[in-house]
Amino acid sequence: xxxxxxxxFIFSVFALLEVLGLKKEQAQKIYIFLSVxxxxxxxxxxxxxxxxxxxxxxxxxxxxxxxxxEFEPLFATLNTLTYYIGGNYTSLLFILxxxxxxxxxxxxxxxxLYPITSLYILMGISFGNVFYIRQTIATCILFYATxxxxxxxxxxxxxxxxxxxxxxxxxxxxxFAWWIYNLNLKKKTIIYTVIAxxxxxxxxxxxxxxMGQLIxxxxxxxxxxxxxxxxxxxxSAHSYILLVVKGVINKCFVLFLALYLIDKVKEKYPAFRSxxxxxxxxxxxxxxxxxxxxxxxxxxxxxxxxxIIILPFAFSFLQRKSNKVFFFIILSFYLYIRMYMxxxxxxxxxxxxxxxFSL
Length: 359
Hints:
Structural class: mainly alpha
């Protein structure tokens, strides 16, 4: 774990320099360097990260990928092509990492006031997406697709939606971003809809459970099996209740900070409202599905990434350096906790960090 905390600390130093007034040209060079560093880590890793065995096994059986219906066509095709041209699994990771970090690095540069800080936040949340799965790649493509909403280029937006969906089916949910992005919602509306989504989740869980008992038979068995996944922790060392509480706290922290900032920055940075809209919709999806099935929660992921853009905006209205440092300390404490939860849930999958050079 020391390896990960040390890297997070190094990122925090550069992020602090950025928010305290590092020149834009210098910040951009450091940001690119750090992004390349994460890119390298992402494809030299070996037997490290979630779903490693499943993805590796799929790759070595790539010629028979048609039998693996759980994987989407584009992801399966990339595996197959890499296999047939004689590439090894590290070659595939290089290709996938290049796609992910190309879209991720460009997107953060486009949307964030403080790119290094956004990357630092992403480090705390998911270690900069070094340990990606196919949905992570799809999410970064959708992240970039947001620029086409701002530019009102529907065809380009739809094209990237299709590409992302061919990597992970859940990406289709991002189609709603086209309308959500430009909504002008009142704060009360945002709060009320979030609360309503919590009640909707509980109600839906109750209805599904009641239907299972009422219908009986095979259908009842399937419903109970499906509902049983709502208590699954996906292999996490933490309890389901703790994971839910953690999710609620994280969502509320980011969303309510965004609502606090919105009136202070919206005139100078109109896009901030749009980023808040997207994160708000992701929060609703998360709350509405978390009581039904842990699988459905992943529909919120393409919207969740906008938290790394929202949080750094807090530094834009803090004039005194002492206030910036104080908020940075709070943010860092929050990120260290999130990293602990991220790795602590599946510690055996990440510790130690193994690479191709240790084979």
